[in-house]
Design brief:
By secondary structure, the protein is mainly alpha-helical. The protein is built from five helices and no strands.
C-alpha cells in the first residue's frame, strides 16, 4: 500500500511560514527551515517588545510631564501627588501630550493644583 501523506496541509503550513518571512533578506525569506527559525525568533521578539513598549512609553510620558512641570516650578512627583489629591482624572499619556503640544492647557492644569 502506498504511503499516505497530507501534502495539502504540509504545503499550507510551509506557505504560512514563508508568507510571514516575506521581506527578510536572502535565504531567510526563501528556504523553509531557515525562514522558520527566523519567524519564530521574530515572534518571540514581538511578544517581548509588546511589553517593553508599554514600559518605554510610560517612561517617556513621565520625562515629558517632568520637563513641563519644572517650567512651572514644580517637580514631577509633587505635581502628580497634588493631581491625585485633587482627584484629577488625567492620565500620564494625556498630561504628556498637553505638556508637549498644548503648553497653555498644561499651564492651566498646573495652576489648578498650585
Amino acid at each position: 500500500m502506498p504511503r499516505s501523506v497530507n501534502a495539502v496541509a504540509s504545503r499550507r503550513r510551509r506557505k504560512k511560514v514563508l508568507d510571514l518571512a516575506k521581506g527578510y533578506w536572502g535565504s531567510r525569506s526563501k528556504v523553509f527551515t531557515i525562514a522558520k527559525n527566523t519567524v519564530e525568533k521574530g515572534l518571540q521578539y514581538a511578544y517581548r517588545d509588546r511589553k517593553t513598549k508599554k514600559r518605554e512609553f510610560r517612561a517617556l510620558w513621565i520625562q515629558r510631564i517632568n520637563a513641563g512641570a519644572r517650567q512651572h516650578g514644580l517637580s514631577y512627583s509633587v505635581l502628580m501627588g497634588k493631581l491625585t489629591a485633587k482627584g484629577n482624572g488625567l492620565n500620564r499619556k494625556v498630561l504628556a501630550d498637553l505638556a508637549m503640544n498644548h503648553p497653555d492647557a498644561f499651564k492651566a492644569v498646573v495652576d489648578s493644583v498650585k
